[in-house]
Amino acid sequence: MKTPIQELIKQLEDLRDSISEDDAMYRGGVVNAIRLAEGMLEKEKKVIEEAYWEGCVQWDSEDDAEDYYNKTFKNK
Q1: What is the pLDDT of residue 76?
Q2: How far is CA 19 from the centre of its chain?
Q3: Using one digit for the tens of pLDDT, what is the confidence trace for 1-16?
Q4: Which uninterrupted H or E stretch holds 72?
Q5: Do the beta carbons of residue 48 and residue 3 sit within 8 Å?
Q6: What pTM value is reported for the model?
Q7: Which of 9, 17, 21, 42 is the most exposed place for a label (fewest CB within 10 A)?
Q8: How many CA atoms lie within 13 A of 50 on its CB side?
Q9: Phi then psi for 7, rounded to 5 degrees?
Q10: How many other C-beta atoms are found inside a 10 Å radius of the C-beta of residue 37?
């Protein structure tokens, strides 16, 4: 199983590989997007680990996964 960011990187790499070398601007933009996504992998790992441990600590909470997501990540 891959994380969403890992899946995104794979999709971007496939896109990069499908772009002609002649289209350097477009290809460069995709390469930059890959680098940005790769830079988020460690942050994603920490978020997943924190969610896991939070679940271990509050296993008897009445909140469900969606409640946890909304409280933790939902920005309005």
Answers
A1: 55
A2: 23
A3: 899 999 999 999 999 9
A4: helix 65-73
A5: yes
A6: 0.78
A7: 21
A8: 10
A9: -65, -40
A10: 20
With bands split at pLDDT 50, 70 and 90, how would you rate the model's confidence at 75?
low
Q: Which of 73, 50, 71 is nearest to 62 (CA)?
A: 71
15-25, pLDDT tens digit by residue?
Answer: 999 999 899 99
**Residues in contact with 73: Cβ distance below 8 Å, sequence separation at least 6, in sequence order:** none
Cα maximum dimension of the chain: 58
Q: Please state, for a pLDDT cut of 70, what percent of the chain lies above it.
A: 93
Angstrom distance (rounded) from CA 76 to CA 50: 22
Average pLDDT on 42-50 reads 93
Name the residue ranges covered by the structural domains of the chain: 1-39, 47-76
